[in-house]
Every structure is written in C-alpha cells, then in structure tokens.
Design goal:
Helices cover 6% and strands 56% of the residues. By secondary structure, it is mainly beta. The chain has one domain. It is globular, with a radius of gyration of 19 Å. It starts with 10 loop residues before the first strand and ends in a 9-residue tail after the last helix.
Length: 125
C-alpha cells in the first residue's frame, strides 16, 4: 500500500459533491518489502471516478467520535497501472474496473469531530 499526497489539480469534485475524479500519472512511490528485497522505487497511475446518487445517509457514532453524510448509492470505475524495475501491470483501458462496493460522502472524526460539534456560542459539546 502507498500513501502519497496528490496535487490539488489531480482531484476534481462536482459542485453537488456527487462526482469525484482522481487522475494521476506516474506518481513516484516506494514498494517496501521484507528483506532481502527492501525498498524498490516504482510509479503508479490511475484514473478513478466515484458517482453518488440517492438521498443522504447520516451516520453518527459516539466512540470513536465519528459523523458522516454519504450518498445511498455509489459506484466507482477506473483504470490502474504501475511499474518498477523489470515489472509492470495495467488494467484494461477499454473495460474499466468497476467496484463491488464504494462510498462517497463527507465525514468528521477525532479532533475535527469534537471541534465541529461544539456550541458556537458557549463552546459546550
């Protein structure tokens, strides 16, 4: 698994928030494998689109602090590829990969959740 910050211009969100697209090419990542392989530089590319529809589904939980508003029906489709020295893979560019499960919405958790749920007048939770 790789975790990298994506440039702002690679993520687009429709004004209603029901369509989100990520489009990145040749992002530098590092495959971290057990010894003796160790770290291997690699690149990944993906184009992924999430589309949500239907009324919002509100989720709230007390512990851990979490709240969210998600579309009731979401689907995701995309293409993926990756390469490192001597190896590469790519999904079918014509028949884009489709999700069996997807979520699209907004959430608040942890410290951000606590700050967002405080009374703006008195600061009480």
């Amino acid at each position: 698994m790789w975790t990298v910050r994506l440039p702002d211009d690679t993520v687009t969100v429709e004004p209603r928030g029901n369509v989100v697209t990520v489009d990145v090419h040749d992002v530098a990542v590092v495959d971290d494998r057990p010894a003796p392989a160790g770290e291997t530089p690699a690149t990944v590319s993906l184009q992924m689109t999430w589309k949500g529809r239907g009324g919002g589904r509100h989720l709230r939980a007390g512990a851990p602090a979490f709240a969210g508003l998600f579309f009731r029906h979401t689907r995701a489709r995309g293409t993926f590829s990756g390469a490192e020295d001597g190896f590469g893979f790519a999904s079918d560019a014509v028949k884009r990969a489709r999700s069996t499960f997807a979520e699209l919405g907004t959430e608040q958790n942890g410290l951000f959740f606590a700050l967002a749920t405080r009374c703006p007048r008195c600061g009480a939770p």
